[in-house]
Write a structure and sequence with these properties.
Fatty acid desaturase; fatty acid biosynthesis; mainly alpha; binds zinc ion; 330 residues; single chain
Amino acid sequence: MEDSLCEPETEIADDAATGPLPTTGIDPQRLPRPEETEPLQIMWRYVIVLSTVHLVALLAFIPWLFTWSGLVAAVAGHFLFGMMGITIGYHRLLTHRGFVCPKWLEHTLAVLGMCNLQDSPARWVAIHRMHHQHSDHQPDPHSPLVNFLWGHVGWVVCRHRRLDRTSHYERYVRDLLRDPFYLKLERKDGWFFVFLAHAIAITFTGAVVGYVVGGGQWAVVGRYAASWYVWAVAVRTVFVLHGTWSVNSLSHVFGYRNYQTRDHSTNNWLVALISHGEGWHNNHHAQPRSAAHGHRWWEFDMSWRIIQGLELVGLAKEVVRPKSKVASDA
Ligand SMILES: [Zn+2]
Ligand SMILES: [Zn+2]
């Protein structure tokens, strides 16, 4: 199977969803929720954690908590954790094997991914491979054809019983779980402690900056620590979360299509902008393994540029490129 991942027995994204092709025009109530989300059960643990990080992010409206260094750290974190961790690490490397890299780099990218409150690498990858297999058909964990809110965040906080089963992991991420590094992270929520550790480290760095800036005044140290916590941890995490969720929601509803795929995926420039190229999602569904998601010259894909850079310095190999041009460009 040309578009399979490296493990033939792992169920991967060939985007060959069965069932009738979606028709054009979207009836937002057309698709039922996945069967195994019935009856609806809220996962309060997720609700509490996600609500907390959103509430903390709202503190950014308090002027006292603004510092330029906190803002710079938030923007830098968006690139480091959001792009390197989620877009390049979780998505293009671990899910689709769009390139290979040394184990130390793969694990580093996975650790960066865990700092975004988007679950463990294995769970994320399994859900996403399942999405590709059943895109916009009923088993799809997060199709916005159920309704927009479901596709954006509803699916995150409602139990999908299949996603918790060992058979689901065996089917979709057997390749990943052969590596003890990923297996360990599944136990006792190891990934969540990585998130907490990074939040503490960032807050501490803010305190150090405050110490330097304020000449040792404790009030300044406290203000900078709080500012970095609010901006570089909470605001950045919320921004990256909505960027990823927008790929699932906006990029399956609004935008244009280069390819006639068996789903409603679209190319959306706004999503591409906030998620470092992930918004070229119709291109991605057409050619899931390609490490480049921008297929036309104007479809700027920051993550692809970074992967090219890694290839240039010998850190990325076997980089998968788009196998065909957009028909109208050929
Ligand atoms: Zn999709
Ligand atoms: Zn994908």
